[in-house]
Amino acid sequence: MQCTWPQNDPQMLNYHDNEWGNPVHDDKKHFEFLVLDCFQAGLSWKTILHRRENFKKAFSNFDVKKIAKFDEVKVQELMQDAGIIRNKLKITGTVKNAKAFIEIQKEYGSFDKYIWQFTDHKTLVTKVKQSSEIRATSPESDAMSKALKKLGFTFVGSTICYAYMQAAGIINDHLVSCTRYKELIKAEKLK
User: Fold this and answer.
1) How confident is the model over 94-135, as pLDDT tens digits?
2) Cα(56)–Cα(60) distance, rounded to whole angstroms?
């Protein structure tokens, strides 16, 4: 038994089974999920996931230092890239977020050290029994959103932050009947 949201889509199933909810402690992966969740705003995760490789290519393999240097010429180039979501606000927002991300790394030593503080450096386990119980926001995502906006991030509303927290394993929203739920709980206990 597993979560129902991937349906029968092979990419969604692979993402669910191998990534979603795994605790992330790598800054590059954190930034990748922030970029993808930014672009997901108003769209389905399936739409973004099916374009993930295009995003990876367009955004310099999610290299935050390279993205922070993107100029208007690069933004216009990305606006012509049919492989990604061509939304200028989201593209320029990603550049702005890269710059803010680097500032957090400078201040805290890593983005990872900073971002896990919102859950006291441990995964929140929600214990949901059915998909309808999965929330779109939480007090933690509200606090994260407010803090990131204050630091200069954009496209980091509470709903986007919550989706990011799910992806990065900061929240375990797998259904309790899902095999991944049990695997992640077991892995956490072995730490």
Assistant:
1) 999 999 999 999 999 999 999 999 999 999 999 999 988 999
2) 6
For residue 83, what are the β-bridge partners? Answer: none
Identify the domain containing residue 90 by its residue range. 10-189
Element (H, E) at 124: strand 124-125
The predicted model scores a pTM of 0.95
Summary mean pLDDT of the chain: 95
- Give the angle subtended at the CA of 38 by the CAs of 183 and 162, to the nearest 5°: 45
Q: Residue 54's CB: how many other CB atoms inside 10 A?
A: 14
Return the CATH number at 87: 1.10.340.30
In a domain, 162, yes or no: yes
Phi, psi angle pair for 124, to nearest 5°: -80, 130
Inter-residue contact 123 to 169 (CB < 8 Å): yes
